[in-house]
Amino acid sequence: MGWGVLVFGVMYGLGYDRGTGNPAVGDTLPWAVPAALPLLIGTFVANAVTGWRRYLRWTCAALLIAQAVFLFLFTWLKLLALPPFLGVCLLLWPKVNSPQLHWRQWLLNATLPLVCLGSLVWWQYFHFPLPSDAAMTAHFNAHRAEFEQLVKGYRDFRRYLPTAEDDREEKKINDLEDKLKREKKLAPEAQRTIDEARRQGLKKFGPSYRRRPDVTALMANIGAYDVAGAGRGGDWYPDHYSAKTIQTVKRYMDHWIPIEEQLTGSDRFDFIRREIPSLFEGTPPVRDNMAEVTQLTEVVLIQMGTLKQPYWVTRWRYSTFLFKGYYHFPQPPRVENGHVLVHDFLKSGEVELVPGLRVFDSLDSYPPDWQAGECVLKRIDEHWFIALCRSY
Predict the structure, then answer these.
(1) Strand partners of residue 325
(2) Which residue has the higher pLDDT, 4 or 34?
């Protein structure tokens, strides 16, 4: 049990490919039990040579072999593979020290665990568990109108913006709560009154976009779990690769602009509205709020699944979540040499086109050199891509 805690707790806490951090007890214990089970069970069946206990002994040996191989190949502390290897030797010793069985029985005893072990390795390292590109494309084409509606609704969604009066009311509630706490007079009735005042204030904001009833119904119809900014892929503006747009974005984002010359919040908004008016055409009014501008320019990710559960899978090969979804670019990106081309604003004042997200002809297998947190793409049309993502 101590060995199980050490191996799986430390490896899970540190991460197989990171080597930093500290495992928590709550993270360690769920891994310790399955890690230690082959050794614990093996102590009761180590001398069994007949009946079902013999096959249980071989199963424990196969599991310990798998653990030893995994720890030796994929962890930085190779000595951790020694305990399961010794456990295999002890479990197989009765076989070595007993009268020879018929060769067919011996072959059966050896083959079954090897087949199970090979199947496990194939499933965890070589089998690709996510939907095929053909299935993703067919699903998208069958529901294209709903996907387009979902993304347009996301970009057009405008939440309530707090006013100065809202800020004063919130401060008043917080000050009252702090005062009652200091004076030790925060009775349950007073706490309920304060909580109710907060709830009434939050009602002004309304539900987020994905929690609106019409949006949840739309997502349930197409099998989507979430719609949100991708967080990667950059911002995209009309006529994105033109010299005028590049210079406008450089000034708007204050890339290598002296501090005294940088735009303030309201000036920044007026500048982008004046220089790229086409960005705001066909959308509800955008207020003096940079988050609403970002809604129009960011890449949108649609994750598949149910409303309560994303369709994520895990494999030992990466020890992270893997999923497929859809990327929507507001402007058609240029793809060259397997990469989306993006702007790189240099300190010298020049702007270069550099490789961004990787684009493949097929996402039906694991991409080479797939990094944690990376999404790779396959193009469907000018704006839409299939995205294959690996979490951090």
Answers:
(1) 303, 387
(2) 34
Q: How confident is the model at residue 97 (pLDDT cuts 50, 70, 90)?
A: low
Helix (H) or strand (E) run with residue 261 in it: none
Q: Which amino acid is at 350?
A: E
Same domain? 268 vs 190 = no
Q: 374 and 281 in one domain?
A: yes
How many helices and strands (H and E) does the chain possess?
14, 9
pLDDT confidence of residue 7 = 58
Strand order from edge to edge, sheet including 339-345: 335-336, 339-345, 351-358
Percent of the residues in the chain that have a pLDDT greater than 90, as a whole number: 36
Minimal CA–CA distance to 5: which of 259, 25, 164?
25
User: What is the per-residue pLDDT across 153-190, written as a single tens digit (0 to 9) for each?
Assistant: 999 998 877 777 877 888 888 888 888 888 888 888 88
Q: What is the dihedral of CA 62, 68, 69, 75, to 10 degrees?
A: 150
Which uninterrupted H or E stretch holds 346? none
Residue 48 sits in which domain range?
2-125
| 377 has pLDDT over 90 | yes
Alpha-carbon distance of 307 to 149, in angstroms, equals 17
Q: In the numeric block, which tokens belong to residue 118?
A: 């090979």
Structure tokens at 272: 């982008």
Both 234 and 383 in one domain: the answer is yes
C-alpha–C-alpha distance, residues 265 and 269, integer Å = 6
Top-confidence residue, 383 or 194: 383
343 Cβ partners below 8 Å, 6+ apart? 234, 246, 249, 351, 352, 353, 354
pLDDT number for residue 16? 41
Residues belonging to the chain: 392
Structural domains in the chain (count): 3
Give me the amino acid identity at 357.
Answer: L
